[in-house]
């Protein structure tokens, strides 16, 4: 099935994609947002915040707000201005000629410009037994599964904000949470570190990496190696939560857009422009540095303005009256 | 509660699982699980599209822990497909409609 040519197609619906949707909708560009598909690993509609609980650092919410609720608000705000949202995963794109094309299965979408906001998903340890025991003690979603580890001892792998946030959340259920980190220092923000260090249920296993997940039918422990002494040990735990970092969702664009070695999309000169004219990228898919909801939203706004200006320029250059681009409202 | 999806409890579970010849897909979920909520409309669609061939029901693990514990559910959403009272297939984590239908294909 083929639809008409859109001015703007947005792929992904986290804070970046939905902010781009709000801005392009208000600019009368009639954006279509292909939201993504249900998942438990961070690449679902609404993005990574759908798997978090309290968001305390998104400005404007004095007492914090639940991640899923914040994203429901973003979505409703985009819909209010006429953004069209469809649930589905883009399976293929062709950025080699304009209009650009994107497919959701057999359904083809064509657009003059594309904003990519496919985000990033949580990295796993990539151990064979980790996959086997997924759902039997290995979890990708602390907010979903913490409940099942009441009065159990569990482990969280990682040393960033996500790891400490999960560890702190999991102490609501678990009797003890061991944070396993490969270095002696944490990357996490000061406030998260202080909170974790003060929590009597959280212990740290420094300079250590998980080498195997143990258990026949359910997790019974993890094998750990100290990277300084090379000493091997076993930590008996009933649950394992992994928060060791993220990988950008860019497989779709391989060979079509310039990427850095780590797979993140390259954007140019403090803008959201990618290596293809008319294709813009915002949020975590192009940001391995800040990765905050508010920076994602900010870059989503940038992408919307970049796309709008680019489309205007195309109209000027081609004198194509058929492209309906409204001027930026003054009251933005 | 959606018309096509029955709500199970610890008390009604066994009766429902064995109560009809069609396979029964049980969705173990909870209110606080965002991925669980994401698949609810998908399950409603599948239930409507395969009425008469597949029954779908949901069980709130927060309220009905006994059944969840019996089937060693440690992650939600978990979907377990029962046929003739016995579990045949287990799917862990939220998935899109296409993938879910594909996984269930053999039982439809």
Q: Could you give a quick summary of the protein structure above?
A:
The complex is a heterodimer of chains A (332) and B (108). Chain A is of the alpha/beta class and 332 residues long.
Explain what this protein looks like in three dimensions.
The complex is a heterodimer of chains A (332) and B (108). By secondary structure, chain A is of the alpha/beta class. Chain A has 2 domains: 2-121 and 246-318, 3-Layer(bba) Sandwich (FAD/NAD(P)-binding domain), CATH 3.50.50.60; 124-242, FAD/NAD(P)-binding domain (3-Layer(bba) Sandwich). Chain A has helices at 15-26, 67-80, 128-132, 142-145, 161-170, 190-198, 293-318; strands at residues 2-11, 32-34, 54-55, 65-66, 84-86, 92-94, 100-104, 107-116, 120-122, 138-139, 153-157, 176-180, 202-205, 208-214, 221-226, 232-235, 239-242, 246-248, 279-281. In chain A, the strands form 5 sheets. In chain A, strands 1, 2, 5, 6, 7, 8 and 19 form a 7-stranded mixed β-sheet that branches. The radius of gyration of chain A is 22 Å and the shape is elongated. Mean pLDDT of chain A is 93; it is low at 321-325 and 328-332. Chain B is of the alpha/beta class. Chain B has a single domain, classed as Glutaredoxin, CATH 3.40.30.10. Chain B is 33% helix and 27% strand. Chain B has 4 helices and 5 strands. Chain B has a 5-stranded mixed β-sheet. In chain B, strand 2, helix 2 and strand 3 form a beta-alpha-beta unit. The model of chain B has no long low-confidence stretch (mean pLDDT 92). The A-B interface holds A 37-41, 44-46, 50-51, 67-68, 87-89, 105, 134-137, 139-141, 143-145, 147-149, 217-218, 239 and B 30, 32-39, 42, 61-62, 72-78, 90, 92-99.
Compute the average pLDDT of chain A. Answer: 93
Radius of gyration of chain B, Cα only, in angstroms?
12 Å
The beta-strand count of chain B equals 5
CATH architecture field of chain B: 3-Layer(aba) Sandwich
N-to-C series of helices and strands of chain A: EHEEEHEEEEEHEHEHEHEEEEEEEH
Strand content of chain A: 25-35%
Mean pLDDT of chain B: 92
Major sheet description of chain B: 5 strands, mixed
């Amino acid at each position: 099935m083929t639809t008409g040519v859109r001015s703007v197609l947005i792929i992904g619906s986290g804070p970046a994609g939905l902010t781009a949707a709000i801005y392009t909708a208000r600019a009368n560009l009639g954006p279509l947002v292909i939201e993504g598909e249900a998942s438990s690993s961070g690449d679902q509609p609404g993005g990574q915040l759908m798997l978090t609980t309290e968001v305390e650092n998104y400005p404007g919410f004095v007492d914090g707000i639940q991640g899923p609720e914040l994203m429901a608000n973003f979505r409703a705000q985009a819909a209010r201005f006429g953004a069209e949202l469809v649930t589905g995963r883009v399976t293929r794109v062709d950025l080699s000629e304009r209009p650009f094309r994107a497919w959701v299965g057999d359904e083809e979408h064509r657009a003059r410009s594309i904003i990519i906001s496919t985000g990033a998903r949580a990295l796993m340890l990539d151990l064979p037994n980790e996959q086997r025991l997924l759902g039997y003690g290995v979890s990708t979603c602390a907010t979903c599964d913490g409940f099942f580890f009441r009065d159990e001892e569990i482990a969280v792998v990682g040393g960033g904000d996500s790891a400490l946030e999960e560890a702190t959340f999991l102490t609501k259920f678990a009797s003890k949470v061991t944070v396993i980190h490969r270095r002696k220092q944490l990357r996490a923000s000061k406030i998260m570190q202080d909170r974790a260090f003060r929590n009597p249920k959280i212990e740290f296993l420094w300079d250590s990496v998980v080498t195997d997940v143990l258990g026949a039918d359910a997790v019974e422990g993890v094998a750990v190696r100290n990277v300084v002494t090379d000493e091997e040990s076993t930590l008996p735990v009933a649950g394992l939560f992994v928060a060791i970092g993220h990988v950008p969702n860019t497989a779709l664009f391989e060979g079509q857009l310039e990427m850095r070695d780590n797979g993140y999309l390259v954007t140019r000169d403090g803008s959201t422009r990618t290596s293809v004219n008319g294709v813009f990228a915002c949020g975590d898919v192009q940001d391995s540095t800040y990765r905050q909801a508010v920076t994602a939203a900010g870059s989503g706004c940038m992408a919307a303005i970049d796309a709008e200006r680019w489309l205007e320029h195309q109209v000027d250059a081609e004198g194509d009256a058929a492209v309906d681009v409204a001027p930026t409202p003054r009251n933005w | 509660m959606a018309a096509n999806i029955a709500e199970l409890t610890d008390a009604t579970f066994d009766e429902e699982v064995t109560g009809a010849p069609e396979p029964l897909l049980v969705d173990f979920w909870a209110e606080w699980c965002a991925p669980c909520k994401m698949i609810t409309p998908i399950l409603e669609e599948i239930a409507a599209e395969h009425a008469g061939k597949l029954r779908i029901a949901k069980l709130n693990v927060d309220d009905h822990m006994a059944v969840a514990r019996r089937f060693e559910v440690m992650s939600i959403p978990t979907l377990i497909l029962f046929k003739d009272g016995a579990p045949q297939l287990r799917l862990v984590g939220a998935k899109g409609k296409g993938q879910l239908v594909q996984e269930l294909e053999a039982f439809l």
